[in-house]
Amino acid sequence: MKIEQIYTGCLAEAAYYIESNGEAAIIDPLREVQPYLKKAKLAGATIKYIFETHFHADFVSGHVDLARQSGAKIIYGPTAQTTFDSYIAEDGEIFKIGDLTIQVLHTPGHTPESTTYLLRDKEGKPYCIFTGDTLFIGDVGRPDLVQKGAQTAEEMAGTLYDSLHSKILSLPDQTLVYPAHGAGSACGKHMSKETFDTLGHQKEVNYALKASSREDFIRQVTDGILPPPQYFAKNAAINKNGYESFAQVREKGLIPMLPEEFEATVNHAGALIIDTRDPQEFAKSFIPSSINIGLNGQFAPWVGALVTDLKQPLLLIVEEGKAEEAITRLARVGYDETIGYLEGGITAWLNAGKDVESIDSVSVTDFEEIVLTQPDVKILDVRKPGEYEAGHLECTLTRPLDYINDWTGEISPTETYYIHCAGGYRSMIAASILKARGVVNVIDVQGGYAAIRSTALKRTDSSASAKEIKH
């Protein structure tokens, strides 16, 4: 028996490779499927099944491509409906993988079709559960992703409670829990950085599993949920209806362009330029109207949160050798319209004598002096609301990057704004977007709130602020 968790940190996503006696199964595969095919080939195994725990909202699954290339059957739990060939299993149905069995446990609550897969060893003993977004390490799935007009978040939370207590919590304590996500995913609130655990330990430490009643569970699970990123519903629809093959997306995007062609394509196709370099490198020199979303951070989720049109043509600025990685990560969240990248990167653009812009950065020492001597200085804190509530400068405006498309209209193009996040990644994204939208004077605070805490600037831990914007 072989069970391998394949964890992708930038998406906080876990897929699984299961193998026994020459047969294999994949659970919740990512968009690019060659790694799974390669594993099976090296082991001399045949991929028999592709198990989907639900219609994922935060990434595009590789189920359709993998089934096409391997001949495996796509399995969903009860109530799922797809427009491609799939098998909709019954609650309790059993599948064989070599000497192992996988049993379908319909566990609605996160979504109506959400399903947990119970793996039993060759002796028939429960060994592990693949819980998808039903049960995380330290958390449970958010219950608010159902379509409008269907059940409320509170009703879905009640269904989730019933699923956990009727299907999962009665399993042996030593059963391993393998979820679809870890810390950093927007599919839950309090996920642990650990990516697996025993069910018994989760009963002891998971706040949702310790709820005193069904009503207490509903209250705790629904309290403080932020609105889902705008791309979630779009990705769920893609996973339900199918998509263009990843090979075609890759081929379409891997088009190197010299500066003249790149510039002409921007103008002709109305393409958005995404510069994937390190934030501080971007700030020194960048193509006008380009936005910075660094490849070394949570690149794909931030593109998904901020670029509202999946069909938006994209052109990329990348470090040498990074174009395919950027295209792959965009495709994972449904952005399939990359149409090329700048060959030679920003150096080629500069050598061609093309116009560039820059964003000023200020050290935390200079920032401290500015705040102390300029009482009317405008400072944007672009961290998440929970981060802001945990501690912030009293003179800041909370403007979460997640909602920049909502609050940009409040920003005056003629004012000067100092921008910070926790460490510098998100603040440069925000600064670049504001700059592209005509705000001339945006200044990044180096080191973000982590550096600001070392100063004497007045801070508060209060969650109340007269300047706070509500969403």
From TrEMBL:
Signal peptide start and end residues: none
BP GO annotations: glutathione metabolic process; hydrogen sulfide metabolic process
Domain Rhodanese: 267-358, 373-461
GO molecular function: hydrolase activity; metal ion binding; sulfur dioxygenase activity; transferase activity
Matching Pfam families: Lactamase_B, Rhodanese
Keyword RNA-binding appears in the UniProt entry: no
Source superkingdom: Bacteria
Record key words, sorted: Hydrolase, Metal-binding, Transferase
CDD domains, A to Z: POD-like_MBL-fold, RHOD
Protein name per its UniProtKB record: Glyoxylase-like metal-dependent hydrolase (Beta-lactamase superfamily II)/rhodanese-related sulfurtransferase
Lineage: Bacteria, Pseudomonadati, Bacteroidota, Sphingobacteriia, Sphingobacteriales
